[in-house]
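Something for you to look into today, if you have time. Just paste the record in under my message, thanks.
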Amino acid sequence: MLKNYIFTITNGRSGQETLYRILQKYAINCFSDFEAPNIKTLMPSPLNVIERKIRRKFIETDELLGRGKVIQAYENKDFKFIENIARKRLVFIEEQMHKLKADSYFDISKFYVRGLFEGFNRLVKAYSLVFLVRDPLQNMKSFYNRNKNFYLDNSVPSAKTNILQLNHECLSKEELYLWAWSEVFLRFKRLSKSNRVLKSIVFKTEDLKSPKRVETLFKSLNIKYNAIKDVKIINTNQEIGLRKTKVLEEDLEKLVKFIKKLPKDKIELKKHLKSSLQKNNLILKKFNI
C-alpha cells in the first residue's frame, strides 16, 4: 500500500507546533514529526543544556534537522549530500510508521523547504504539500522579536540557488525576514508544479484556531481523525516572556521599502505582500507604490 507522505512548507513562526499538537491529539494512524529529530534530554537542569549541545553535534545533528551543512549543500548544489541525509531520515520514518501501523506521515518543519526537499523529493515517489503561511508582516515581527541569528536557519539571500536573489548587504534585519518569507512563497509555487505532488494546499496560520477548517484540511489530505473540539495556540513569543507580536507603522514602511527592491517580474509575490499592507491598515497611496 502506498504511504501517504505530507510535507509542510513554511517559513517558521507560523503555528507549526500548534499543528503538531493537533495531529498528536486528534489524528488516527498518522505519524507526525515536528522539526525532527527532536532532542528529549535525560539529564536534569542545568546539565540538560550541555547534553542538548553534545547530542545536536553528534547524534540528532543539525544536518538531520536540515540546517548547517544542508543549507550550505543547497547553496552549492550538492544535492547528493542532501539526498543521503533524507535517506537516513526516511529509514527512521518508515520504522516508526511500521511500529505505529501508520498509513500517513506528516512532516512539520521549516527546514524541508530550506533544502531537505531536494533529498526527499528524489526518494519519495508521491507526496502532498501544505503551505502553512502566516501574514508576512506578522511573521517578520515575530522573528525579529526573537532576536536570533538569521543565518542559522537561512541561506544568504544572494545565493544563486535562490529564486529571489537580493544583495544581503542592502537588507536590514527586518528585510532579511521579509526576504525569507518571500523565498519560501516562491519555492512553494515552484515545488507545487512537480508531477510527484498529489495535492498542494495553502493553509493560513489563523485557520489553526478553527476546528472546522483543520478538519477540512485533514479530509483533503486523507488523514483519519477524531472530532476536533478545541485548539490552543502554543509557542507564542508571550509564552517565553517576549513582547507580543504587534505590527507598527514603522514595520509597514519597511515592507514598502522591501517591495520596491523586488524585481519587476515578481508580480504575484508583490500582490501578496501588498495585501499584507492592506490587512495591516496601511493607506497605499501614502507611499506611492
